[in-house]
Amino acid sequence: MTATTRTRLTPEQRRAQLLDLGVQLLATRSLDELSIDLLAEEAGISRGLLYHYFGNKHAFHEAVVQRAADDLIAQTAPPVDGAPLERVHASITAYVDYVVANHEGYLSLVKGAAGGSESIRAIYERTRSDMGDRVFREHPEGDIVPDTPATRLVVRGWTAMTEELVLSWIAEPNGVSRDDLVAILVESLPALVGVTQVAPEA
Amino acid sequence: MTATTRTRLTPEQRRAQLLDLGVQLLATRSLDELSIDLLAEEAGISRGLLYHYFGNKHAFHEAVVQRAADDLIAQTAPPVDGAPLERVHASITAYVDYVVANHEGYLSLVKGAAGGSESIRAIYERTRSDMGDRVFREHPEGDIVPDTPATRLVVRGWTAMTEELVLSWIAEPNGVSRDDLVAILVESLPALVGVTQVAPEA
Fold it and tell me: Hey, are the CB atoms on B149 and A183 less than 8 Å from each other?
C-alpha cells in the first residue's frame, strides 16, 4: 500500500481501496472476525476515519460483502467466445478457484454466520441467483438450456449443488482432483436439463 | 391436549409432549418467533415450568429442532420393499410434502435465521448429511449409486439441490406440478451418478 497511499486519492478512491483491503482480509477469515479495528490496523489509519467512510460496522460489512460479490461475478464471467459447454467450463473453473482462494469469507457467508443479517443474506442470494440466471442470459439461443419453468428450477438447483460440492470437496477432497470436480459440475448441467425433458411436463 | 393432560404423565412424557407442540408451532413460524411465552400460552402452563423442563430458550430451541429433525428423518424413510428408484421416489415425495407442511420453520433453519447458533446449525447439517448418506446405507448393493469419492460428493450436491428446488418451487411453482417436481428430483439422482462415470476419475 505504501506507494499508493502517497498519492492523493479522492474519497471515493480511498473508500474503494479500503474495501479491496476488506475483501482481501475476508479471504482468510469469517465476516465476524473482520472488525473495523482490524481494518484500521491493516490500513494504518484511525478507526475514526473508517467510521467516517463507512458509518458503522454493519454498513462496512455490507459494503465489503457487496464488493466481494461483484468480484466473484466478474471473475467467473464466462468468456465471450467458444462452444457453450466450454464457456461453462471456464466459468466453473474460475468459480472453484475463487472459492478455494477465498474460503473462509465465502464459508461464513454461506453459513449465514453474518448473524442473520437480512441485508447481507440478500446480497448473497442475489449473487447466487445472478450466477444461475447467467446460464440463460449468456445463451439466449437456448443451445444448452431451453428456458422453461422446469429448467429455471433445475438451474437454481444446479447452482446450489455447485456451491455444496465445491465446499464439500475443499473440506474432504478424497482423491477427487480439481479437474474431475470441474468436469462433474459442467457435465451435470446438461444431465439435469435432460431430466426435465424426460420427466413429465406440467 | 385436554384428554392427555388429565392423565398423569412422567416428566419425560410431559417434556416429549411439549416438544411435539413446539414442532407443531414451528411449522408455521420461524424459530425466532417460537418463544417460551408462546409455548407456555399454547400449552396452558407457566413459563416457570417450561424453564424447569428446558433450562433456557436456547436449549428449548435446540430440543425442538432436534425433534423436528428426527421427525423429518422418520417421515422420509424409504419403504423397505420396492425397486430402488421407487423407494427414492417415495422418500422424495415424503420430503416435498414435509417441507410444504412445515415451510416456515424449515425455511428459518435453512436460512440460518437461528442467529448463527452453532449447535442448531450442527443439527441441520447432520440431518442433511444423514438424508444424503441414506442413499448409500439403503442400497448397500450399490444398485443405484456405487460408493466412490465422486458419488459421495455428487449425492451431497443432490441433497443441496433437492432442498433448493423444493424451496424455490414452493416460492414460485410457475406451473410445475408436485409430481413433476418429484420426478425431476428422483431422475436427477441417476443422471448425476452417470456424470461421475463419464467424467475422468482421479
Answer: no
What are the cell numbers at B189?
439422482
CATH 1.10.357.10 fits B69-198, yes or no: yes
The B residues from 14 to 33 touching A (CB cutoff 8 Å) are none
Q: Select the residue of A150, A153, A160 nearest B160 (Cβ to Cβ).
A: A160
pLDDT tens-place string over residues A97-149:
999 999 988 887 776 644 567 788 888 888 988 888 888 776 655 567 888 99
- Domain B8-61 matching CATH 1.10.10.60: the answer reads yes
Superfamily, domain A67-198: Tetracycline Repressor, domain 2 (1.10.357.10)
End-to-end CA distance of chain B: 58
Q: Which of A163, A169, A187 sits opposite B198 (nearest CB)?
A: A187
Distance from CA of A116 to the nearest CA of B (A): 5
The contacts of residue A63 (CB under 8 Å, 6+ apart) are A19, A22, A54
ipTM of the complex as predicted: 0.85
CA B165 to chain centre: 15
